[in-house]
Amino acid sequence: MKLSIRMKIFLPVMAIMTLFPLAVWAIFSYMLEMNMNYNARRDLGWAIDRMETKISDSESFLEEMSEEMDAENVETRMMAVGEGYRLLYPVDFSNQPEMTELYPMFLTKATGAEEFWEAGEIIEETIDHDKYLLYYLNLGSGEEDEVHHLILYHPVHDASGIKDQISRFLLLIAVAMAGVAILVFWFVAGSISGPLIRLCEAARGIGEKKFQKVETGATVKEICQLEDELNQMQEKLSQADQAERTFFQNASHELRTPLMSISGYAQGIQCGVFEDTSQAAGVILDESTRLTEVVDGILTLTRMDQLRYQVVPVDLNIESFVEERLELLEGFAYSQKKKLVYENGSSHKLITDAMLLERAFSNVVSNCIRYAKETVTVKIEGNESHVLLTIMDDGPGIREDEKEKIFDRFHKGQNGNHGLGLAIAKRSLEYMGGTIKAVPSASGAVFEMTLPYDCRSFAPEEWKEM
Q: 375-382 and 339-343: which strand pairing?
């Protein structure tokens, strides 16, 4: 059976608080009886020690011992028996009424009717329904007036009366404390379960894409941490959801524009509007190429976002790679009347994905070519941890308000193409454990691309296991 967290906390506490008064009563009763028994043994032990001293040092030890016990105000009493089991002490039973039971008991045991007491041992006996601690000494035979048998005994007081009175008082206090504790724990459990219920409602809202900041009013540290984490997650999911909406809006726009051009020119050819169909076919081909680039870029980003893009690490000389890529981009630069400059550095070997690196590098260089006035410069540097590729142009540079947006998907500048180039470059480098950033410069745009020497140590777990 599933219980709420409030009941999960409250029920065990209520059970403990219910059993607590009973435990207090049981422990108190046991300790009270133990204390009574301890006090009786202590007083009897003192009397035994004193009696052994008196027996060896004095012939009138009975009188001396009686006076000393009276002076010490102890409850230990004596019974002395002489020859022929004649009672020598006490003569008067008025101060020791239990003698009416103890002396007959002694005679019964002494005559062999019952097992006799073991000498020198403290034993328990019940006399007239009361419990006593008894110590027996056999002093041997002697003259008629001498003590042959000596018995010291001490009552073990019945604490039931005191126990009942104090127990009722303790039980009353314990019940009151238990009631207060149960009430307190009920509200404490509520202070934990209430915020958790609100957090559950917020989690349910996340599943329905209702991103609202939750405030539980919790005072428990762990619940406050959970609340903060949930709010941060909601904020990130809200941003991701908005980015997804923007992405699809932009993607639909980027796809619709070439499709409309292709459809319009195709209908014109079909209806015989164009006398020279080669020009219309060229537009259709150009728009089809653009459409292919957009779709290919979207698919690439989607695979990397879902960690489904499988990196193929290969050994690569970065200098040779850059030279080859720049040669392929010479034609585009020439068509734009721009010049590519490569500042060759020292040789660096990488283990990386050549296809992802090519796409990222080509996209950044192409972007710089479109915005440069005359020159795009590429240089390579390296240190112990990574290789740095710097790509610079002498164009107008990046506006301050665009520095945070240029890597967003479908964000296009004034001379932009379809707004996916830099986004793909950024995601490709991140997928291999690298980074890219735009560096402020007064003489044009500057992009710094960092690459680890071995991309396998930064690979997502999904493609590591493939």
A: parallel
